Amino acid sequence: MMLIKGSSSPIGLDISDLSIKLVQLDKSRDKIKIQALSKLNLPQGIIVNGEIKNKAELIKAIKKIIADPLYGKVSSEKVVACLPESKTFIKLIEIQKSPNHLADIIGSEIEKHVPMELNEIYYDWQIIEELTDKYLVLIGATPKNIVNQYTDLLDQAKLSPIALEIEPISICRSLLKEETFSLKPIAGDNLNYGIIDIGANHACMIFYSGHTILFTVSMPISGEEITAKISQTLDLTKEQAEKAKIICGLDENKANGVIKNILTDNLKNLMEKIKEAISFYENYFNQRGPLNQILLCGGGANMLNLKKIISKKFSVEVKLADALTNLSEEKNEFDEIFAEKHTLDFKLIKLDSDDKQKNLSIKQNSSATFATAIGLALREIFIDEL
Q1: 3-class DSSP state for residue 227?
Q2: Residue 99 domain-assigned?
Q3: I need a surface site. Which of 88, 312, 326, 367 has the fewest CB within 10 A?
């Protein structure tokens, strides 16, 4: 693989069911800049629910995105990749102090919390805080067969995997200023976050406080599920339904609220799950104080009115996450690359006569979809700073 001279920082490679996203960063003094960035959509069936089904085609796609990125050039064969969120587990647990060595206790404690057999998983752990009588320990686990799939994939793609990371960790590293000071708390730095990542095939909510993830919860929503429902209800093609979802979203003023009405049950289920997750946080982590912010990221983050609806329902500030918050790029520097314009012919959606003289269109910034890839690319840079 021919590479140009440049940054030696590893590539952040976000491999999901329907796309690959790539980011390579370059750190010069105290500036962290984007050297290369790209996205490539994958045909259905290459990866299904995080499991690789067509390794040969996936390797071709990886080589293509590295050889010809949308921006810049790749200059490293080292890679930090993420494991599929639906196949991983991460949680902050308490371990009582005892005469036994902590490492000897971890295995038995993990069995109490992880819904997988110990001999079938790889796991890792980190002490987050030592208290008088106990440790707060962050544990992460994933099935061995999934890890082996991805390491074998990267090896065959002639890449050098530095690490395989659980996705919520990389998301937090990208979105939160607190991660810049990870393990080095600063005064007044005590916000509690709920991060909702809405992807094409999976969504989750990450709870973060005091420089650590507390736990994650799967959410009953995905971009593909919503698109399919719109397609079936209005008898649209998948492409038309995808555009209708993006352009109209949950805005009752777009297409006379047709799309919002179709998604009523999906929205209701999502709100109920968020409520359950927040209640769990308040019951088991009440000493950390109330939730201060909810951040939205992933492909579904831009859904019209979603931010407003969640904020009104839970009386919490809701923001569209800024995936570039820990980089040194100028504001609007990559607007052209992240810009996505969508237009839909009015005839393809059932509208009243008042609306029949106009098409529907929208221009969105897709930077929130790169949160995982940017977080992966930041891993080695942040580790070097500690």
Answers
A1: helix
A2: yes
A3: 312
Q: 69: which 2 tokens?
A: 């990125």
Give percent above pLDDT 70 in the chain. Answer: 92
Q: In whole angstroms, what is the distance from residue 16 CA to residue 47 CA?
A: 7
Are residue 362 and residue 231 in the same domain, yes or no? yes
Q: Name the residue range of residue 355's domain.
A: 218-367
363 and 228, same domain (yes or no): yes
Backbone angles phi, psi at 49, to 5 degrees: 50, 40
In terms of phi and psi (left: phi > 0; alpha: psi -120 to 50; beta: otherwise), the region of 151 is alpha
Helices 167-175 and 371-385: crossing angle in degrees, nearest 10, is 80
The pTM (predicted TM-score) of the whole model is: 0.91
Answer for the pair 172, 207: CB distance below 8 angstroms, yes or no: no
Q: Which tokens is 211 given? A: 């420089």
In the block, residue with structure tokens 């897709």: 366
Residues found in the chain = 386
Nearest Cα neighbor of 69 from 40, 38, 41 is 38
**Domain for residue 107, yes or no?**
yes
DSSP state of 253: T
Q: Report which of 345, 346, 329 is spatially closest to residue 337, judged by C-alpha positions.
A: 329
Say what the pLDDT of residue 180 is.
78
Task: List, for residues 253-308, the tens digit of each pLDDT value.
Answer: 888 888 999 999 999 999 999 999 999 999 999 999 999 999 999 988 989 999 99
282 CB-near residues (< 8 Å, 6+ apart): 290, 291
Specify if 17 maps to a domain: no
Q: Is residue 158 within 8 Å of 77, Cβ to Cβ?
A: yes
Number of domain units in the chain? 2
Query: For the domain that residue 133 is a member of, what is the CATH number?
Result: 3.30.1490.300
* Nearest Cα to Cα of residue 275 among 261, 297, 291: 291
User: Is there a contact between 171 and 196 (Cβ–Cβ < 8 Å)?
Assistant: no
Q: Chain-wide mean pLDDT for the chain?
A: 89
User: Is 251 found in the same domain as 356?
Assistant: yes
CATH number at residue 352: 3.30.420.40
| DSSP string for residues in 25-85 | EEEETTEEEEEEEEEEE--TTSEETTEES-HHHHHHHHHHHHHS-SEE-----EEEEEE-G
In a domain? residue 381: no
